[in-house]
Amino acid sequence: MMRHLLTFFLISFFTIGGYAQPLNSIYYEDFTSATKDWLTGSNDTRILSISNGKYHFEHLKNDGAFGSWRNVTIETYADFTIETSITKEAGVQNYGYGLIWGKKDWKNYNRFLLSGNGMFSITRTEKGNSKDLKPWTKSTAIKTGNGATNKLAIKRQGNDLKFYINDVLVHSMPFQTFFDLQIGYYVAHDQKIGVDYISVSAAYRTEKYVLNDDFSDNPNQWSTGDDDKRKLQMTEDGYYSFQHKRSESSWATWNKAVLDDSRDFKIEFAARKASGVQTY
After folding, report:
1. Distance between CA 140 and CA 149 in Å, rounded?
2. What letters, b where the CB count within 10 A reaches 16 and e where it falls short, cover 13-42?
3. Residue 118 contacts by C-beta under 8 Å, 6 or more apart in sequence?
4. Pairing of strands 2-16, 265-276
5. How far apart are CA 18 and CA 156, in angstroms?
6. In the structure, what pLDDT confidence band is assigned to residue 259 with cuts at 50, 70 and 90?
7. What is the pLDDT of residue 17?
């Protein structure tokens, strides 16, 4: 025989702010002064520096690529925007430079790249295997050549992830989860870029209760009753008492709640074991 006292029970889902709601700034850097957030220094592969209001990133090799990043905590179940402005300062025209996001390591990350000759691509690398989410594609939205400045933005809106170049939507696809929270920059082959700013913002998350009961009464009409198998009752001190009387088998009690399982949700309860066996 076992007796439990349920003190509260709730089911809630999280509603994400819609497109018309303002986003909250999570991280912003305009590189007007030195910052420890971003890697600087030089070696035989790259030169990284902050000067004249830009984060300068020069890759010195004529093959391969290099990246620089930092952690930015984004609650990715909400709408968010990652935006940056990049000037291509020098180098080849037919290799990529741009944003990396959701990075865990070089075997698990995403990149949104431009090239000086007016093309862009979106790639996801997972467990070391790279897949083109958008193969290299020509776009008139891109400002071309050395000296050109382009604004890149990645926006989650509902279940979609949208990619913008200079405020022009160039690709949309279903949202895919981040590997981790690293966001930064990627430069391939011998190129130099200057980052004007990076901004990360996200929508409010609000919580709506679907079923919430503290058992001070029985407005949700939980089952009650007493027979040879179980005893269910609301107690005067605000508990839903559930006593299973038999020494074998089990019993259950439940309620109905309409739950939108396309949204994040939470089911939570608290119970006190009042009496009974310890091994079941």
Report:
1. 14
2. bebbbeeeeebeebbebebeeeeeebebee
3. 138, 139, 140, 142, 144
4. antiparallel
5. 11
6. low
7. 44
Contact 195, 84 (CB under 8 A): yes
> Which residue's entry shows tokens 């979609």?
160
The contacts of residue 169 (CB under 8 Å, 6+ apart) are 162, 163
Measured CA to CA in angstroms, residue 105 lies from 39, 100, 181, 263, 269 at distances of 16, 11, 10, 28, 38
Q: pLDDT tens digits for 35-92?
A: 878 999 999 999 999 999 999 999 999 999 999 999 998 878 789 999 999 999 999 9
| Residue 127, token pair as written in the block | 């467990």
Instruction: Tell me the helices (H) and strands (E) count for the chain, helix number first.
Output: 0, 21
The DSSP 8-state label assigned to residue 216 in this structure reads S
Structural contact between residues 235 and 241, judged by C-beta atoms closer than 8 angstroms: yes
Q: CA 129, 133, 137, 140: dihedral to nearest 10 degrees? A: -140
- How many whole angstroms separate alpha carbon 144 and alpha carbon 257? 55
pLDDT tens column, 130-189: 999 999 999 999 999 999 999 999 999 989 999 999 999 999 999 999 999 999 999 999
Cβ–Cβ < 8 Å for 59, 187 = yes
CB atoms closer than 10 angstroms to residue 94: 11
